[in-house]
Amino acid sequence: MLTIQNLILENMIRAYEKLSQLSQVFTFVETDRTQRFESEIPYGLFNSVFTYKRSEEINPADEMASIKSLYHNRGQKLAWVTTSHEQDEVINQALAANHFNQVGVISGMGLSLEGWHSDLPDMSGLEVRAIREPQEIEEFRKVMLAGYNVPEPMADIFSKVFVDGPNQDTTTVQHYLAYVDGVPVTTLTTFTEGDVAGFYSIATLEAYRSRGIARTVLAHVLRIVQQKGVKLAVIHATPMGRSVYPKVGFKEELTLNIFSS
């Protein structure tokens, strides 16, 4: 049986695998010991190793160097992800030997929806919509790009991967757009597999931040997926989100440590 930590990581990997299939701008590669992504895009998680099971017969530092060369030969840096619940000192030593430096931390958070309810009050003027129509998707794109402050050279790629690609999938992926007095201000996307739903692309326009909109939208969508039978909600939080998500019940279960070389 998978632990909650493994379910949180698995949802992220499968979500990115689905994004790779839908956008066709990066590739998911799975072997008996690794799960990784590769692309020509200079963006960390599109060129990354998410899981690695070392073999006693192969020197991890040598194998890591071989994997790293696959990316460097294409002119890309490689991101390598380790998790706090499966720390391996041999892997840490191999990372150091291959000149990987830690560049970020993501908090893996979970929330059991069995018996969960939110005490957050309704917010005046706020409307949350599950969207599919072209005009709504265009509004979603503009809010997400602005909310994440995506630089112009990366805007088309981000849109293809995180907006347009997912909108083709009517079974596991759903975009939500929140409006305040008719103005689109917050985005959110769910990826549901089995009875686990991952929450992604949560972004709010800067002028509307610090009003509690994101957590209210999150609570609204949590109720929707709960009614559909989802048992566990997961989020992979940046430092900015770590202060928001516990307010609706999420708890940090692990950290994803991101190294780059």
From TrEMBL:
Superkingdom: Bacteria
Keywords in alphabetical order: Transferase
Pfam (any one): Acetyltransf_1
Keyword set includes Cell division: no
InterPro entries hit by this protein: Acyl_CoA_acyltransferase, GNAT_dom
Keyword Transferase among UniProt keywords: yes
Protein name: GNAT family N-acetyltransferase
UniProt domain N-acetyltransferase: residue ranges: 126-261
GO molecular function: acyltransferase activity, transferring groups other than amino-acyl groups
Gene3D superfamilies: 3.40.630.30
Provenance organism: Paenibacillus silvestris
